[in-house]
Each structure stands twice: as structure tokens, then as C-alpha cells.
Write a structure and sequence with these properties.
By secondary structure, this protein is an all-alpha fold. It has ten helices and no strands. Helix 1 packs antiparallel against helix 2, helix 2 crosses helix 10 and helix 8 packs antiparallel against helix 10. It is globular, with a radius of gyration of 19 Å.
Length: 204
């Protein structure tokens, strides 16, 4: 599914010159995977702690992120014009700290405007949203497990769907509103994307 998502993005950017739904597929599938992982770990251990959660996350994400960013830096020096190199280098820390989406939003970047200058690291906005989503999900499921322990008679699946359904409705409503008010900002705002992760995470 992740390969399909990447191919959708590449096909539309390279051959069709438009924005695809590849990132949306990626977010939905990520929601499914991380939620399944969290619930599976909790069912096995009976606990959900921040340090093991974030440590495992960093072990999986940081090596590939550092490799990609370092490769972009080296290649940019030889292949990109000076004007783009400067902007690219300014985005290095934002990418490594998973803040790229907010940097682009605050700088009034319009991702759909092909006339605006793009950098190789600009596409890290999607990874930044995914990283922020992992932190949001830690808070969501910390609260979820807290309630579940005190309401032992409640169905875990039913409570999960109540949580995720509430997040889905709130995020989708806000996304529709913000798209009308400020589309460029809505594109990078993590809260307008939470409904996609929630959709993928819903349990049957």
C-alpha cells in the first residue's frame, strides 16, 4: 500500500503535473499500521509507556531520514542553483525535527502553485505530519487506555471507535472549513489530516 501511495504521488507529479491522492493513501495506511501496533503491544504487555514508544519510533525513522537529508544536501551543492540551495539549507533543521509542514505554512507556501520555487526537502512536509501524528496518537491512546482500565466492562473496540470517530468528525469538519478559508495553510496543518489517520485506524 505504501508503494502504491508513492507511485501515485510520483505519477501525478512527473507525468500529469497535478496533485494525487497518494499522500492521503499513505496517511490512511499509516493510521492503520500505528494503531494496530499500539493495540497489539498493549494487549501483550498491558502497558503503554512513552519512552519505549518514542525510542522504537526514532530507531525506525531517524536512520532513513538522516540518510535522505544528507544525500539531498550533497546533491544540491552540485546540481541546484544558488537561490534554491539557500532555501534548501534553511529547511534542513525543519525536516530533521519533523517541523517542515509548519515552516511551509508559516512562510505562506502554496504547494499547489507550480510557479513558486520548490526545494527537494519541501516534500518532507508529509513525513513531518506523520511524525506529529505519532505524538498525537500517543496522547490519544494514553487517554484511551486510562479510561479503558477504569471502565473494564466497556468493549475495547467500541471505545476505540468512539475515540476515532470523534477525531474523524472533528478533523474532517475543520478541514472542510479551513479549505474554504485558507487552502494553502489547510494543506500543511496536521489537524486537517487527523481524519485520514483516524479512518485507517478504525476497528471492526
Amino acid at each position: 500500500m505504501r508503494i502504491i501511495a508513492v507511485l501515485l504521488v510520483a505519477m501525478y507529479h512527473i507525468w500529469f503535473g497535478r496533485i494525487s491522492g497518494g499522500v492521503d493513501v499513505f496517511f490512511i495506511f499509516s493510521g492503520f499500521l500505528i494503531t494496530t501496533s499500539i493495540i497489539s503491544r498493549y494487549n501483550k504487555t498491558g502497558e503503554f509507556r512513552f519512552l519505549p514508544y518514542i525510542t522504537n519510533l526514532l530507531k525506525r525513522l531517524l536512520p532513513s531520514v538522516i540518510t535522505v537529508v544528507f544525500s539531498v544536501i550533497v546533491l544540491s551543492i552540485f546540481l541546484l542553483p544558488r537561490s534554491i540551495i539557500e532555501k534548501t539549507f534553511n529547511e534542513i533543521i525543519d525536516s530533521l525535527l519533523y517541523y517542515q509542514n509548519w515552516q511551509l505554512a508559516l512562510s505562506s507556501t502554496d504547494y499547489l502553485d507550480r510557479e513558486q520555487m520548490k526545494t527537494p526537502l519541501e516534500h518532507f512536509w508529509a513525513m513531518s505530519i506523520q511524525g506529529q501524528f505519532y505524538l498525537i496518537w500517543f496522547l490519544v491512546f494514553t487517554l484511551f487506555f486510562f479510561i479503558l482500565k477504569r471502565k473494564a466492562a466497556w468493549s475495547g473496540i467500541k471505545l476505540t471507535n468512539i475515540f476515532l470517530g470523534t477525531l474523524f468528525a472533528a478533523s474532517l469538519t475543520y478541514s472542510i472549513y479551513l479549505m474554504e478559508v485558507n487552502q494553502p495553510w489547510a494543506y500543511f496543518d496536521v489537524s486537517t489530516r487527523v481524519w485520514e489517520f483516524s479512518l485507517g485506524a478504525c476497528r471492526q
